[in-house]
Amino acid sequence: MPITADEQGFLDAVTLDAPWDLVTTFAGMHRWKPDDVNKAAAVIVDRLRRHGIPVEVHQPEICLSIPHDASVTANGVRYRAKPPSSALHVPEGRTAKLVKLKANPKALRSYSRDIGLLFGGSIGSVEEVRRKIGGCIVVMEGFGNPALTSLIEEWGGVGLIAVNPGIDIHWGTCTTIWGSPDLHDLPRKPKIPVVAVNNPDGQALMALAEAGGEATIRTVMEEGWFPQSIPVVTIPGTEDQQKFVLLHGHYDSWEVGVGDNATGDATMLEIARVLWAKRGSLKRSVRIAWWPGHSTGRYAGSTWFTDAFAQDLDENCLAQINCDSPGCRWATSYHQTRAFTESAALAAGAIRDVVPDADIKCIRPPQAGDYSFNNIGLPSFFMLSSTMPEALRREKNYYDVSGCGANIAWHTENDTLEIADRDILLVDMKIYLLSVLRIANAEVLPFDWSATCDEFDATIAQYEGASKGMADLSPAKAAVAGLREALAGLGGAPIAARNAAVQDLSRILVPINYTREARFAHDPAYTVPPLPTLAVAAELPALDAALAKPAMVELMRGQNRFVAALRAATRRVHQATGA
């Protein structure tokens, strides 16, 4: 849809003055240790108040794991290393035989626990792997991510050395626990030391593993509950003030973290400034939040907010928009735009109207990036922002990373001021602002649940085909058909009833597509397949006889949950349409 005159008035108000000042300020501030993070929050609060914007500052205690030092010693050589957040604290070191596992090069960044995907068929059965790595330190290419760490631990490995792809070492996190742990989460705390090394050192360690050598991993960690500041701005709407759009992103970073995420913090600051100045033209409210605990707490800041304000989010939040790594050097493409299917047209439309010739492709968001709202059921889009065109990335011989617009400075000491680009930042700020406006000021909420039905049909067909006739998913297909038929009549409902139904549908359909845990809980930080309650159907042909019948029980229960959810969604649409 073309940009309206009202929308253009908002976009024309965007300038680089305030945001660039914050970017340059943060470029001189480390923001990963708790005290430094709170100092950064004070800077954001000060900037907001300079513009006359009221800001509420929460200060919860959240669980953090701060990495301080690490090393790998082997054959008398000490190799530089970084421990990911939540690695086991082993300052005295742990020594064991090295074992090399071969990674699938296409899955180095994957958060999946799918063994075939992670290892590309290079390993045998789980029993064989247990015999191979039990009591040993595993060394393999990749990043020390949660899914991989949890598998190595389950298989009896006593440590993990992740060999990063380049000459730099990337910080990260290795826990599957999402946010601060509850009693249910505690058993999943990593129980092994994990470190990352650069590629040249990793090659030497992998060669040593093949020769039957051993190594000592040392990690120095600080774990505890720390008070951390969460600044939140609410710009009130003029018509439906209770309902709001949530725009959010993290302000803690590794070292100075300019592209990840000072540019995002600056984007939210500027959008707050523009919306506050023009708040008389907002129909619904907009809430903007800056999170701590993203890097060292596995999204502990956004998770605390989700927990503390769960009822308000459930009743009133229309969508969440994540702002991470906008405005980075060379990032002129949008071919990796994260969006739920029902939100994809909205996200793509905002990009296309600001950048008419943009390369846009919307893809399913991974279980990452402060998407702490899936279990409540919020329509969601954006995570990482613009990125480098693939041709340019290949030309620069850059490997794939998870931010900074595909600059390999991501999560390293090199994510400094040169990673930010003023012109690209200006464009990305306008995209974010326009997308916020198109929810806040929409007459009819712009979420397409018919498109979600298309996705459901495709996923069910994929699983049924992969089952090679072993799974009957006809009840699931019939449930989708029933919802699709009901949705066809939703356009004739009164606008207020239609909007209420569109919101309520998200509370049913987002969790069934993205979560396994209950509403108001948090799933582990590894990849959830589409329609996870049905996903076991695709695994049936590969299971041995001992697992086949339990898997069919799981599928029956999962299909029951899916069908019940779709029928509840259908009833909700019928309620709105009077059918």
From TrEMBL:
Domain annotation Peptidase M28: ranges: 232-423
Keywords tagged on the record: Carboxypeptidase, Endoplasmic reticulum, Glycoprotein, Golgi apparatus, Hydrolase, Lysosome, Metal-binding, Metalloprotease, Protease, Secreted, Signal, Zinc, Zymogen
Keyword Metal-binding: yes
Subcellular compartments: Endoplasmic reticulum; Golgi apparatus; Lysosome; Secreted
Recorded superkingdom: Bacteria
Provenance organism: Falsiroseomonas algicola
Designated name of the protein: Carboxypeptidase Q
Gene Ontology molecular functions: carboxypeptidase activity; metal ion binding; metallodipeptidase activity
Gene Ontology CC entries for this record: extracellular region; lysosome
InterPro entries the UniProt entry points to: CPQ, Peptidase_M28
Pfam families associated with the record: Peptidase_M28
Subunit structure, interactors included: Homodimer. The monomeric form is inactive while the homodimer is active.
A GO BP entry: proteolysis
